[in-house]
Design a protein that fits this description.
Blueprint lengths: L1 H4 L4 H6 L2 H7 L1 H14 L8 H8 L3 H13 L3 E3 L4 E3 L1 H11 L3 H12 L7 E8 L2 E9 L13 E3 L4 H7 L4 H7 L17 H14 L2 E4 L7 E7 L9 E7 L6 H19 L1 H7 L1
Antiparallel strand pairs: 1-2, 3-4, 3-8, 4-5, 6-7, 7-8
Helix pairs in contact: 5-6, 8-12
């Protein structure tokens, strides 16, 4: 790979636009769109016609792309269409293994009296959405709870607001300018960019984010930011979902303190591991 790009200087990279990069590798871009489409289908089989319609290209071209992805075990073919392949799990596991925070997450949840019986999640920002990296199930799951690899609108979730609060308000304006990434699930969901900016301001002031029935009407989500300890690493957010009878002001306060303690440990995971 290095042999292909070593001749490119800084000025060359800087002058290349997003459109030019996309045009130079259309097959790669389309293949990524296929993978995204199947990932967002949450296990529902998608036919060749479905995929071709999503990409907006001919079925013959789509078939060639799917064949290449199938050869690479990134997707698999069934009698009804296509699903993600086993290799996506292998790649995802390899990616997650590079983050000390994810490896420490489960141990911290198990050791925390306040979190060990709760549903706790850790996520990172993926544009206007959040990507869930790990889920600790302290009790029975409930509808709409996220699984590892799921993406949810950042504007509606507590972990999303915690992560967005790290960004400059101007960057928030850019991310959500057209409004289509502000998704509502319930009447309590954040519905406008102005409302989102207000909630992010409150998150910065109080040091934690709240999802008060925005994803599920009977669930309150709380989350805090886990800032990256190295410039090369992304920030994370750790959040807890509280349902009746734990959804009280007193339990929320306990949960926030537990999240802050967990975040402090996750910020310096190597030091924590060495002390055990």
């Amino acid at each position: 790979m290095s042999g292909n790009v070593s001749h490119i200087g800084r000025d060359d990279v800087g002058s290349e636009t997003d459109g030019e990069r996309t045009a130079s590798a259309p097959a790669v871009v389309r293949s990524l769109r296929i993978l995204d489409f199947l990932a967002e289908s949450h296990g529902q089989v998608r036919s060749l016609s479905d995929i071709a319609r999503e990409l907006g290209i001919a079925k013959s071209s789509t078939s060639n792309l799917c064949a290449a992805l199938e050869d690479g075990r990134l997707i698999r073919r069934t009698s009804g269409g296509y699903l993600l392949g086993r290799r996506t799990v292998e790649l995802g596991s390899s990616y997650l293994s590079t983050f000390d925070q994810v490896r420490e997450f489960y141990r911290i949840c198990e050791d925390s009296p306040a979190l060990s019986s709760q549903l706790v999640q850790i996520a990172m920002l993926d544009g206007p959405r959040v990507l869930y990296l790990a889920v600790f199930e302290g009790h029975e799951r409930f509808p709409l709870s996220a699984s590892v690899g799921d993406r949810y609108p950042a504007s509606a979730t507590a972990v999303g607001k915690a992560l967005l609060s790290e960004l400059d308000p101007n960057e928030i304006d850019r991310l959500f300018a057209d409004g289509r990434h502000i998704v509502t699930f319930t009447p309590e969901s954040t519905a406008t960019l102005t409302e989102l900016q207000q909630k992010l301001s409150a998150t910065r002031q109080q040091g934690f984010a709240v999802d008060a029935g925005e994803v599920h009407p009977s669930v309150v989500g709380l989350a805090v930011l886990v800032p990256s300890s190295r410039a090369s690493d992304p920030s994370f957010a750790i959040g807890v979902s509280l349902v009746f009878p734990d959804n009280t002001a007193a339990q929320q306060a306990i949960a926030v303190e537990a999240l802050r303690s967990a975040a402090a440990q996750l910020t310096t995971p190597l030091l924590v591991s060495e002390s055990i």
